[in-house]
Amino acid sequence: MVRVFYFYTMIDFIIVGNGLAGICFTEIAIQNNKSVYVFDDNSQPSSKIAGGLYNPVVLKRFSEVWKAKEQLEIAFPLYKSMEEKLSFTFDYKIPIYRRLASIEEQNNWFQAADKPNLSAFLSPNLVTDKLQNIVSSFGFGEVLETGYLDIASLIKHYSDYLSKLNLYSSERFDYDKIKFKDDFVEYKDIQAKHIIFAEGFGLHSNPFFSNLPLDGTKGELLIIKAPNLKLEVVVKSNIFIFPIGEDLYKVGATYDWKDKTNNPTEEGKNELVENLKDLITCDFEIIKHFAGVRPTVKDRRPLVGSHHNYKSVHVLNGLGTRGVMLAPYLSTQLFKNIIDNVPLANEINIQRIYKKMNINF
Ligand SMILES: Cc1cc2nc3c(=O)[nH]c(=O)nc-3n(C[C@H](O)[C@H](O)[C@H](O)COP(=O)(O)OP(=O)(O)OC[C@H]3O[C@@H](n4cnc5c(N)ncnc54)[C@H](O)[C@@H]3O)c2cc1C
Q: Helix (H, G, I), strand (E, B), or coil: what is residue 84?
């Protein structure tokens, strides 16, 4: 890999990680005329293998996702502008049909759709038409403002775009090689005003932030081929299934709080297949099987902010199960915090953790 040599040219940001978090931060920086350099060593697959769904409602409890409106207001235009810049489509608008399991759930749906904060997101009319080869006795509730991102293609296009500008290196960032100066850092031949660490579950190897309570929840996902299914929406029961073209469907996902590896397992596959057989009645063939660790946090809030001691060093992590909606929102918050001194919301700021650890900042 040929890397550009900046030799004492000061840039604004080194970004470690070209997953959803790193990409959104990099793009916001570039759109604001800041100079960047990105490292990614392909060590964490979470963004690449994710379902990529976005959905403003927690479909277990029928409650609004934390700051859903604010997140979507930032995410939609950012993703649109990236589609235009990269000249390819990765944001697919597609409705989510929540399969309802009982009369009680139908009633819960009507009640939720009536609430002022949810009425924009939940259709008040149930879908009672049968979907071909899908088991449903109580119909579906339709969620609005939903879709999925083809994140794997976005990552590929974005790293190609940066590489062409000599702003990308597919190498491991070596934490020991940072040299701290008064108000900037030096890393090999680069001088930068700030470093943004957006390493997903890889944060555990980062000596600056490994004390943060990043828990990690492993998830497994299948791609299946089901020529007779002919499904054109996302169906959500205890798993999700949605079409990605050519009779292929993504099916996910599992939740495992113990195993922290990225290896697909028989148990994970069997769990998905059993749930799938409860949901669809036609034949299918498994084409691919993936696994990754979601960067979840013990208190279920993101980890964003600046190191207590090194003010040029920042973290952008803890996107958990909802990276698609959170990445643009958190990146914007962090960017405004660094550049314009806009305070971070307490819920996302790592100062909440430092306080508990009695670390002065
Ligand atoms: C099975 C599964 C299904 C999911 N489905 C959804 C979904 O439908 N919708 C949704 O919103 N979210 C979903 N998620 C969650 C989502 O994937 C995450 O929230 C999001 O991808 C996290 O992005 P990230 O950029 O923080 O981390 P990552 O995607 O892990 O990116 C971090 C990057 O940093 C790089 N890196 C780490 N350390 C270094 C280093 N030292 N040097 C260089 N590079 C480094 C890694 O290679 C990686 O590319 C799912 C996750 C899984 C596992």
A: helix
Same domain? 103 vs 16: no
44 Cβ inside 6 Å of ligand 1? yes
Minimal-distance CA residue to ligand 1 atom 18: 323
Distance CA 341, CA 29 (A): 15
Cβ atoms within 10 A of the Cβ of 182, count? 5
Ligand 1 in reach of 321 Cβ (< 6 A): yes
Q: Which amino acid is at 220?
A: E
Ligand 1 atom index nearest CA of 240: 8
Contacts within 8 Å (CB) and 24+ apart, 240-249: 240/51, 240/53, 240/96, 241/276, 241/279, 241/280, 242/51, 242/53, 242/94, 242/148, 244/150, 248/223, 248/224, 248/287, 249/223, 249/224, 249/225, 249/284
Query: Cα separation of 271 and 337, whole Å?
Result: 43
pLDDT digits (tens, 9 = 90+) for 18-72: 999 999 999 999 999 999 999 999 999 999 999 999 999 999 888 999 999 999 9
Pocket of ligand 1 contains residue 323 by CB under 6 Å: yes
219 Cβ closer than 6 Å to some ligand 1 atom? yes
* C-alpha to C-alpha distance for 175 and 88, rounded to whole angstroms: 35
Q: Say if residue 252 is in the same domain as residue 131.
A: yes
Total domain count for the chain? 2
Domain that holds residue 306: 10-49+152-214+299-356
Structure confidence by residue, pLDDT tens digits, 74-97: 999 999 999 999 999 999 999 999
42 Cβ below 6 A of ligand 1? yes
Q: Which helix (H) or strand (E) holds 27?
A: helix 20-31
Q: Which atom of ligand 1 is nearest to the CA of 322?
A: 11
Q: Is the CB of 331 under 6 A from ligand 1?
A: no
> What is the Cα gyration radius of the chain?
21
Cα(38) to centroid(ligand 1), Å: 15
Nearest residue (CA) to ligand 1, atom 48 = 44
